[in-house]
Design a protein that fits this description.
The complex is a heterodimer of chains A (141) and B (279). Chain A is mainly alpha-helical and 141 residues long. Chain A contains seven helices and three strands, in the order H-H-H-E-E-E-H-H-H-H. A three-stranded antiparallel beta sheet of chain A has the order 1-2-3. Chain B is globular. Chain B is 28% helix and 12% strand. Classes of the chains: A mainly alpha (141), B alpha/beta (279).
Chain lengths: 141, 279
């Protein structure tokens, strides 16, 4: 099953970029990750976390009245790679239904060829973040 | 009481004063490779523990010749003072320093506090990537006295000599065997090497600014757990990066004469058939 179109578009964009463009774009994604909404800050402690990740990642998935999901993240600024990966997933999947989020293949990022920019180890962060987004989606089915 | 080899540690202001010093090369070595392109100390170059310093095929470091090539491209001569700094309390800065020492570069320093302290002090970070004239660096034969391999580690364990496990308490106890986000860094078995004492790396640094603790605090920490300078000490973690920070502390700040880093660490030991494990 293919990824939702917005995510697929990002994957295709990355596939055609040079190494330098990938780094710049990843930094831009990391910088554009919206801050956690004020209303969620007070219950950040109860948010779904990614405890096994070395970078503390907090995420909350919500469903809009139209059925589309919105993901909110809180990730420290000193971890731009993880922020960038989360930001790509949020940009690609915000507005998708929980079913669509669950259908994203675990290896959706392979064609992006990110390992030439940030090495395979870091790209695996995608797997953990996506897994937690799917856990949030399951609760909203 | 002072650090035993204080010359291996420099402060941020020392580095700030030497951004343009041709005899000094500042190297950023991070866990997160995007930090350098976002902004780094003026004049600094980047190495990545994986893409720059690891052998492209084998699980090993660069060969001597490959290391010479990397050092030459960074404009480092055999006399250059090389200063390392990075994120995560200088884990990967210490790892890169350890590798430079492995290939015989004596003149190395760690910037106390790393990126965190530099940023907290409001010092400048720039995006310009400098380039330096290529040199003809000549490395020495690898210095095996600072690197432990599995057979020696087994001997160390069997003869009840000091082994320091610097991972988190849950990794030491075996509750946590791998990190799902780091599949290549997993192990099929959890626990620790028999006889190893648990001294998490983070206990050696101050959380607020990533600087190293005082000589008194460090001595009390390690000696208090029975890790003394009269015997050879081997440190390990999961992939050998956190333990290179502990190696730096024991070897230079406390001046232990014989300290080795077991870079195979738990990703090797926890997958090794027939290796003894304690839980």
């Amino acid at each position: 099953m293919p990824s939702p179109p917005k995510l697929q578009e990002i994957v295709d964009d990355f596939a055609s970029m040079t190494r330098e463009e990938k780094i710049e774009t990843l930094i831009a994604y990391s910088e554009s990750l919206p801050p956690l909404p004020e209303r969620l800050k007070k219950d950040r402690d109860s948010m779904d976390s990614v405890p096994e990740c070395m970078t503390p990642v907090f995420l909350r998935g919500e469903k809009e009245p139209d059925g589309g999901m919105v993901f909110h993240f809180d990730i420290p600024r000193e971890s731009p790679t993880v922020r960038g990966l989360a930001s790509i997933l949020a940009s690609g999947l915000n507005g998708s239904t929980p079913e669509e989020v669950l259908s994203v293949p675990a290896d959706f990022f392979m064609p992006m060829n990110l390992q030439e920019a940030i090495s395979q180890q870091r790209i695996n962060g995608f797997i953990g973040i996506l897994a937690h987004m799917k856990q949030a989606a399951v609760k909203l089915l | 009481m002072a650090y035993v080899h204080p010359e291996y540690l420099v402060e941020t202001e020392w580095v700030a004063a030497r951004s343009n010093d041709p005899n000094v090369r500042i190297i950023e070595s991070d866990e997160d490779p995007l930090l350098y392109p976002i902004g780094h100390i003026p004049g600094a170059v980047q190495v990545d523990w994986f893409t720059t310093l690891q052998h492209p095929v084998r699980r090993d470091f660069l060969t001597k010749e490959q290391f010479e090539e990397v050092a030459s491209h960074l404009g480092i001569t055999n006399d250059t003072t090389v200063v390392f700094y990075g994120d995560k309390s200088n884990w990967f800065a210490c790892y890169a320093l350890w590798l430079f020492q492995y290939y015989g570069h004596e003149n190395v320093r760690v910037m106390n506090g790393g990126r965190l302290k530099w940023e907290k002090e409001g010092r400048p970070l720039v995006k310009d990537v400098p380039s330096y004239a290529k040199t003809a660096y000549r490395a020495k034969e690898a210095d095996q006295s600072i690197r432990a391999f599995r057979d020696e580690v087994l001997k160390q364990s069997k003869s009840k000599k000091p082994l320091v496990d610097v991972r988190s308490p849950k990794e030491y106890s075996g509750e946590l065997i791998s990190m799902p986000n780091y599949p290549q860094e997993g192990a099929t078995r959890g626990g620790h090497i028999p006889g190893a004492v648990s001294i998490p790396w983070a206990q050696a640094v101050n959380e607020a600014d990533s600087t190293f603790k005082t000589p008194e605090e460090l001595r009390a920490l390690y000696e208090g757990k029975g890790i003394k300078s009269d015997e050879e000490v081997i440190a390990y973690c999961r992939i050998g990066e956190r333990s290179s920070l502990t190696w730096f502390v024991l070897k230079y700040l406390l001046g232990y004469p014989q300290v080795k880093n077991y870079d195979g660490s738990w990703t090797e030991w926890g997958n090794l058939v027939d290796a003894p494990i304690e839980k």
